[in-house]
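If you are new to this repository, start here. Below is one unmodified record pulled from the training split, so you can see the exact layout before writing a loader.
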Amino acid sequence: MRTWSSDQIGDLMRAFQKAAILGAGAELDVFGQLAAGPLTADELAGRIGGDLRATSILADALTAMGLLGKQDGRYSLAPGVGDVLTEGGSHKVLGMTRHQAVMMRRWAQLANVVKAGKPPARQPSTRGADGDERSFIEAMAEISAPNADSLIESLGELEFSCVLDVGGASGTYTAAFLNRYPRSRGIIFDLPTVIPMAVERMTGAGLKDRVDFVGGDMLSDPLPGGSDLIWISAIIHMLSRDDSRLLYRKSYDALPAGGQVLVRDIVMDDAHLQPPSGAIFAINMLTGTAGGGTYSLSEIRSDLESVGFQDVRQLRQDAWMDSVVAARK
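And here is the target side for that same chain:
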């Protein structure tokens, strides 16, 4: 067991500061405004709608962190920052950075959450609730896109004609399935406000004609029929076990005999300590959902079997979100 020093505790407690500075820069689009060239603090404040003194202090802090440069009173992007923190970046993580900034507001209230047993009221960022929702959808794509194709390939040969992507967001995994299986079709099912983003993404990927788009709520609406494979990706950690069983029941009802469900998520050990990233991520669900968490294979198996699924098995083990559990109707 680790022995802690006072300096280590201090460093740990101050770690939020740099994340908050970066999050504010992303939320206010500081990096996007500097993408076209250097700006003075006054010019930057005008672009982001910020107070001049506050903008100067933020820009100096970002410069001290190495994210910006400053010369002759003008700020510019440090090398590589445009690739990751602007809308047109080739390795963009702007959506995730903005989403993490929203999460920090909830995490800061963790002690109150533990006493109350429920998440705090949501506070929109300066981008508004719609902007925060878009950041979340973009974040999911940014996380999944680099590994989606290889993850689907790692599952071996799957026999299906149509995959239903439940809570499919902009369709990262739908695209991965359709690219891996060129004769297949897909259905993206998500909230009506999300569907336009999915249509945009699938159109850009040249896959729109192979995808049906259905708006609805996975807990209050029936799942669309017509698929023989259901993909539930990064969903169950947002749900209580009761709601997970409800979603599994809907999935069971939507599948034909012999159809499969694949659940991609963090899979914990029975003590809920390994992987450590999963134990920490459960805090994110505690501060952000009414009943979510991270679940063990035993819990996932029990919930799937309780609604009738059989042959529950883990196809893939991962230290983060890319474990996959399969079951058959």
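Two things worth knowing about this chain: The first helix runs from residue 6 to 27. The longest strand covers residues 310-316.
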